[in-house]
Amino acid sequence: MDWGSLGFGYVKTDYRFVSNYKDGKWDEGVLTEDDTVTISESAGVLQYAQTCFEGLKAYRTQDGHVVCFRPDMNAERMANSARRLEMPVFPEDRFVDAVKKVVKANLKFVPPYGSGATLYLRPYMFGSNPVIGVKPATEFQFRIFATPVGPYFKGGIKPITLRVPDFDRAAPRGTGHVKAGLNYAMSLHAIVDAHNQGYNENLYLDSATRTKVEETGGANVIFVTKDNKIVTPKSNSILPSITRRSLMYVAKEYLGLEAQEREIYIDEVKDFKECALCGTAAVLSPVGKIVDHGKEYNFGMEKPGEITQKLYDTLTGIQMGRLKAPDGWLFVVE
Ligand SMILES: *Cc1c(COP(=O)(O)O)cnc(C)c1O
Predict the structure, then answer these.
(1) What is the pLDDT, as a whole number, of residue 1?
(2) Residue 330 within any structural domain of the chain
(3) Both 127 and 203 in a single domain?
(4) Are 139 and 208 in the same domain?
(5) Of 16, 254, 265, 302, which sees the most CB atoms within 10 A?
(6) How far apart are CA 221 and CA 133, in angstroms?
(7) Boundaries of domain holding 285
(8) Which ligand 1 atom is the nearest neighbour of the CA of 169?
């Protein structure tokens, strides 16, 4: 495997985990080599998009172990997504166990330490039996597959450009806080439009007042104030990023910075000196510029801000075993 040339795409690996829910209970589940899914033409997921997912990574650490980063947090978040979408919860301890099994069965796909590549894990669940009247499915499938992914930024970290779109991502009492496929389906038009206009991502505002910053289609946002405080938007319609929550902890406990979750108005953005997106895929992507209908907020397109770089180095240092991790953050698989 040429680890350096891997992108962020699907590569088939040897084993995936599958468990089925029927008659009110989950079966014990198996590892299988079958990478296909056969379901009814009227399955709940196909008709009414009854599905949710997660994303996390396994890494090879400096001392040669293979670890997963906080899979218990993904298990908890998927349980919340399932409840909001009227799906049965896959037990959190069994979720973590299944993640470990999939990594162990695909060890040869865990990229070497220092390659910048990682093994991405995709747990997901969907309604599998026929529904035609609008109601929740009664049978479900839970799966986890693994795919090796390359370094998010090839040839160094480069700041990106965001625009404030005329589209909304999440309603105030909708599903923005859960990891539902439907949130992504409706973001596809906005992202294609952003790319066509020359922007990397959409920075969504709260849909009720369109005055407050929320997040992008697939990543939370953090800002650094002129006096080096980390601030991140607080809202019920933002997806609670595990990377963002980890970074806020790292800012306080490792870097001694103040870190605060609060409402952030788009008008305030001019007062910040750094901005970055955070999520599992890239960990932290520096934002160089935000464009809001002719107004521009500049943070520097040349390189990541100083605090952004420190946060990135510290969190990736923890993930790769170069820095001591807080208790319970790394789950050792091997
Ligand atoms: C998955 C996701 C994130 C990032 O969450 P992580 O747990 O850090 O990977 C942020 N925003 C949205 C909308 C997401 O779906």
Answers:
(1) 83
(2) no
(3) no
(4) no
(5) 16
(6) 39
(7) 160-319
(8) 13
Which of 95, 129, 149 is the last residue in one of the domains? 149
CATH number, domain with residue 46: 3.30.470.10
Question: What's the burial of 296, exposed, middle or buried (CB within 10 Å: 0-12/13-18/19+)?
Answer: exposed
User: At residue 210, what are phi and psi to the nearest 5 degrees?
Assistant: 50, 40
Residue 220 in contact with ligand 1 by CB distance below 6 A? yes
Ligand 1 centroid–CA 132 distance in Å is: 31
- Do 170 and 145 have their domain in common? no
Amino acid at position 153, single letter: F
- Residue 127 and residue 34 in one domain: yes
pLDDT at 155: 67
pLDDT (tens digit per residue) in 172-223: 999 999 999 999 999 999 999 999 999 999 999 999 999 999 999 999 999 9
Index of the ligand 1 atom closest to the CA of residue 183: 13
Write the burial class of residue 233 (CB in 10 Å: 0-12 exposed, 13-18 middle, 19+ buried): buried
Cα-based torsion angle of the residue sequence 207, 209, 211, 217 in order, rounded to the nearest 10 degrees = 0
The pTM (predicted TM-score) of the whole model is 0.97
Residue spans of the chain under pLDDT 70: 155
In a domain? residue 177: yes
176 lines ligand 1 (CB under 6 A): no
Domain end, chosen from 122, 149, 176, is at 149
Which residues are known to be catalytic? 179
